[in-house]
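Lecture 7 notes: from sequence to structure.

We start with a single chain of 152 residues. Read the sequence below before looking at the structure.
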Amino acid sequence: MTRSEFMDSLHRALAGNLTSSTVNENMRYYEEYFDTQLRSGRSEEEIIAALGDPRLLAKTILQASRSQTRSYSGQEYDEVYEDGSQGNGWNGERDSNAPRVYRMPGWLMFVLVILLVLAVVSIIGSVVSMFLPIIIPFICVVLIVRMLRRRS
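Now the structure, written as tokens:
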């Protein structure tokens, strides 16, 4: 079995059972693993022999993914997108238009929104307090002038 055949078999075994981003993440991991092992002097045959049957490897990945999903099932997550330069292709190609997804717990999003609101209120308060010594005398002068106009 060649590296290409191994990767194709692994991709087919994962494709119907996981999200495309999870499949792509695993495919990138094993592409990088092959590259690292080849650079260290191992042959493709040795690497494939060490990894074993790609279908068995896929089964292990699926079980790990399911147990991870169960452990996070009680938490609520919001998705935050950021433009990334790394693509979603499993064979290492880069797609500059593909967004990178980060998951953040809902409670953390709530805390960040509260902190942002407090920062905005603080800035507005400091600007108002800076101009208050000018605004109060101005308002007093305007009121006195109006009162004097009414009497005359």
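The radius of gyration is 30 Å. Keep this in mind for problem set 3.
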